[in-house]
Design goal:
There is one protein chain. The protein has a single domain, classed as Alpha-Beta Barrel (TIM Barrel). It has ten helices and 16 strands. The chain has helices at residues 28-36, 78-95, 108-118, 146-159, 175-184, 224-237, 251-260, 270-274, 278-293, 297-300, and strands spanning 6-8, 11-13, 17-19, 41-43, 60-63, 66-69, 98-103, 124-128, 164-168, 189-192, 196-200, 202-203, 208-209, 215-219, 242-245, 264-267. An eight-stranded parallel sheet has the order 3-16-15-10-9-8-7-4. Strands 5-6-14-11 form a four-stranded antiparallel sheet, with no helix packed on it. It has a two-stranded antiparallel sheet with strand order 1-2. Strand 1 (6-8) and strand 2 form a beta hairpin. Helix 1 runs parallel beside helix 2 (78-95), helix 6 (224-237) packs parallel to helix 7 (251-260) and helix 7 crosses helix 9. The two termini are 27 Å apart. Bound molecules: (4S)-2,6-dioxohexahydropyrimidine-4-carboxylic acid. Residues 22, 69-73, 128, 130-131, 194-195, 217 line the site of (4S)-2,6-dioxohexahydropyrimidine-4-carboxylic acid (DOR).
């Protein structure tokens, strides 16, 4: 499997297929299962300063081509979560799987505090700047504003030694502008994309929206072409590595993201379509393609730009 080894941000990963934030990342045991099924890294659910119960049920609904979710960033708060992270980290060490700590906050001060606490317990930090700030619904997020994004990234970079990657929202006019800002602020990498929308589904029997929060972010197969275009645009604007995410369920999907410019990928909704085994399956499918075509991963990353 050496064909899938990669070094990103100075870290060795056994393969480029990671678990995305928010999916199965709440408990150590769920993450261990993902790790045992071949993920190269696992990402936690986004953690904030204080405990947050999240939005009312239902928080997720299946739609054509994917899911809508409005979980509302439920989490136990950073101080409570550290024990869980330590447990996760121990389990992951044995399996040679890296741990990405996803964090959120409503401003740079909150991000700074959470980053300081989590840094020594994870291999890298992913800044969820694509979540709604100021406690709102699915309105604006930090990642829609270049200055706010820059401020959060540079503040966190100032207080941590572990690599810091910023997860971007596709819900912007110019993704290149945001990508350039976070690179400028010192981000070691970019994850793209968070969920698209928001979208909404109505139950015509009850004449009411289905989601407790009324609307939510779209994930899954239908968002893949949009995610690919975002990765393609970001690759053309920055030098730092990109982790592609958005509707990846097969090795061909992952390869498409790589060709657009992603060095690694994350799988979220895909777990619902293909089960825990999806990580091993995607890795096998990527290897098979590379061997058949006599290519290395580095040959395909960003190759459509040539
Ligand atoms: O789609 C999302 N849902 N993206 C996030 O960043 C947060 C999450 C949630 O908890 O609602």
């Amino acid at each position: 499997k050496d064909i899938l080894n990669l070094n990103l941000f100075g870290i060795d990963f056994k393969n480029p297929v990671f678990l995305a934030a928010g999916v199965m990342g709440e408990t150590g045991s769920a993450m261990r299962r993902i790790a045992k099924n071949g993920a190269g890294a696992v990402c936690t659910k986004s953690i904030g300063i204080e405990k947050k119960p999240g939005h009312n049920n239902p928080t997720m609904v299946e739609v054509e081509g994917g899911f809508l979710n409005a979980m509302g960033l439920p989490n136990p708060g950073i101080d409570e979560y550290i024990d869980e992270i330590e447990y996760i980290r121990k389990q992951m060490k044995d399996l040679n799987v890296k741990v990405i700590g996803s964090i959120y906050g409503k401003n740079e001060k909150e991000f700074e505090k959470v980053a300081e606490t989590i840094a020594e317990h994870v291999d890298l930090i992913e800044l969820n700047i694509s979540c709604p700030h100021a406690g709102g619904g699915y309105g604006s997020s930090i990642g829609q504003d270049c200055n706010l994004s820059h401020k959060v990234v540079s503040t966190v970079k100032n207080v941590t030694k572990v690599p810091v990657i910023a997860k971007l929202t596709p819900n912007v006019t110019d993704i290149k502008e945001i990508a350039t800002s976070v690179e400028d602020a010192g981000a070691d990498g970019i994850t793209a994309i968070n969920t698209l929308g928001p979208g909404m589904v109505i139950d015509i029997e009850s004449k009411k929206p289905i989601l407790g929060n009324i609307y939510g972010g779209m994930s899954g197969k239908a968002v893949k072409p949009i995610a690919i275009k975002n990765v393609y645009d970001i690759y053309s604007a920055v030098e730092i590595p990109i982790i592609g995410v958005g509707g990846i369920t097969t090795g061909s999907d992952a390869i498409e993201f790589m060709m657009a410019g992603a060095s690694a990928v994350q799988v979220g909704t895909g777990v619902y379509y293909r089960g825990y085994e999806i990580f091993n399956k995607i890795n096998d499918e990527i290897s098979e393609y590379l061997l058949k075509k006599e290519l290395k991963m580095s040959d395909i990353i960003g190759c459509v730009h040539n």
